[in-house]
Amino acid sequence: MTHILLEKTDHLSDTIFKYQKGKHVMATPSNLVLRSDLDFDAGKRETILDTWDRQIAEGQVNVRTNADVTGIAGSAGAFTLSLKDGSVIEAEAVVLAIGTQGNPNLLKLPGADLPHVQYQLDDPTEYVDEHITVIGSGDAGIENALGLAADEAQGNVVTILNRRADFARAKGANFKLLEEAEADGRILVRRETSPIEVREGEIVLETRDGQETIPCHRIIARTGSQPPRAFVEQCGVEFASDDRAAFPKLTPSFETTQPGIHVIGALAGYPLIKHCMNQGYDVIEFLNGNTELKPADEPILAEKFADLPGRRTVDEWLETFRSQVIILQELSPLQMRELMLDSTVHAYGRDEVIFSRNEPGSSMFAIAEGSVLVEVDPSDRSVTVPIGTGSIFGEVGLISGRKRGSTVRAAEPTVAVEFSRLAALKLLATAPSANRAVNRISIERQVLQIFGSGLTPEDIAELVEAAEVVKVPAGEVVIEEGADDKDIYIVRVGSMVVEKDLGGKPVFLSYLPAGSYFGEMAVIDGSKRSASVRAAIKSEVIRFPGEAFNALLDAKPDIRDRALSDMAARREINDFVESRKASFGGAVDMYSQTAQFLVDNGLGEATDVLLIDEKLCVGCDNCEKACADSHDGLSRLDREAGRTYAHLHVPTSCRHCEHPHCMADCPPNAIKRGPDGEVVIDETCIGCGNCQRNCPYGVIRMDAKPPAKPGLLNWLLFGAGPGPGEASYAWRKNKAAASGETAKLAIKCDMCSGIEGGPACVRACPTGAAIRVSPERFLSVARLEEGVD
Prior knowledge:
It is a single chain. The chain is α+β, with helices and mostly antiparallel strands. It has 5 domains: 168 residues, FAD/NAD(P)-binding domain, CATH 3.50.50.60; 105 residues, 3-Layer(bba) Sandwich (FAD/NAD(P)-binding domain), CATH 3.50.50.60; 153 residues, Jelly Rolls (Sandwich), CATH 2.60.120; 120 residues, Jelly Rolls (Sandwich); 192 residues, no CATH class. Helix content is 29%, strand content 24%. The protein has 23 helices and 41 strands. The strands form 13 sheets. Strands 9-16-10-11-12 form a 5-stranded parallel beta sheet. A hairpin with an 8-residue loop joins strand 21 and strand 22. The N and C termini lie far apart (88 Å).
């Protein structure tokens, strides 16, 4: 075919050319056949470039370098391409394979224009003895960090920032290498951390627990890139949406809304090299009249869809999923194919159980055809909530990692797509439309759960439409006492503390865990804010305009009555504090300081925590011994460790966080939630230590599986074994060596899950000093203990 390949640089394969020197290039997906006439196998950057340059020359491809296209005009069969040097090229068809690399997402924060901020890493060996921060959790960021930390002799201190807990954008192999580098201490991985300011020699971070400043001589920002939208739209090509990260609308043959112009590769939302090469091959086949050609992944998808009802083709099923499921409607056919390669499809019969209450599971489902019923009452399966075609379910397990909260069964013959946790997180991270849809559905369900009383989705549609999800850094004020704003909020993630100013000092009033709402008092009665509300930890809130909330109350008097009842309870607390102004500095002040101490020590994100009343504790260590005897001879509790305020002690023991740090990077998914909220490590643990590194409270230990101890009777009668409680390290080491047991496992409190009677530490305490409490109760404990009643 008559052709010309235009390249604006002086070399071919610019994306690969700009990879860091010596980078290992992957050839994924491994199960996908390569159709291209050019060879491509996993290997070094330099080897791949040399191979392509040689084969391009051997194949006599008509290449023109230093050819920067500034505009494309005309229509199919008669396009005119204008070049920066003033020359013009005429073509019947155009294939845009320009990618997105030339439009990096720039950092938008103070100091981002300083000279030590760069968006490209050419040669990691150039840098020696520097503190280097890599911003970005995709493949490019991970590979740059690995390259900078590859040679310990360089002396670099490499830190990589990820604003999320999961590395959803990265290939599995890259993530595994990052885990190994983290375990070896070669890279510092900061999860749930974002940069907020760049300074000379340092960078300011927003972490889960507040701001932190670390040394930084160089920043490598790999925060993705955007399509060159202005240029592409000037060519007459339409995008899937107005979102800045959206991709062009494409047909299955890669043709855009401008006939004759085709798009492949990263600009099409398909950034993997093997995909791009196959697409390049396919589009030329289409242009050459081969209309029967099917994509290279067709056999894989056909096998996935083989058991679905009806005789539909792969394209027909892809269109069914895309058009029917709300979160998929703005995805291109190419994006749909990639997503389905990482997902599973199911066909369920009427009344068939999809998953059961308390089952482990972190996947999310989307209903393409049919509907399901959610059993909300464990004792009566007839009490159900229907979810229809196009919607999703299972998102709670995806977000929180909890076990399934309800049994879900098919209400009729149903076809559903199951997204693995990794596939779902990648979808939400890379498809803004899907993220918006999941946000809207989760907000709707949270409102219905909190306010209930027979509300329907239609009743709250206006309120949900006006909602906004707001991220709140730790310590930031959401509502300020005395302000005149009129919004209402729901705590979506994290927790809040409520304070009142007395004598110029903030007095702690109450704690609001995830799922609570606040701000309704000023909305309902029009008063000014009576107290301040700030984030105890890094949190998310859903903000609703007061007008929309009042409209709902007007339409639903039952909701207003409930809100007024909640208001009365909160006003009672406010009135109590006001009445003690004269005695401020006594019991009220003590309560406030005690409650604040508990929040500052991580109880703001706990669901169950062990407290010890040191006025009652006699130091017998029965709690530790009982813990060890209940868990194969290894205690999950260190009574003496931890911090104390007044007489309340927080020992080193798992808090069972609402959003556990330890779950963030568990390769075998061995950390799960039990039915009562307990966070448990199961027998699939591989001893990688990620959970121990991620836990900010030091409550996870790595230890060898303990050898069996002789029974209590043998110890009493014959002195065999180490006796009750945890055996000494020396005894365990000797026994382990004798048995050949060396592998270590992660060990933490599991709230004595499955053991009758509940936590052994509490049951073994002879004085009642040890208590386990939820966040809602520990403030009551603080209040009663300090005499505030």
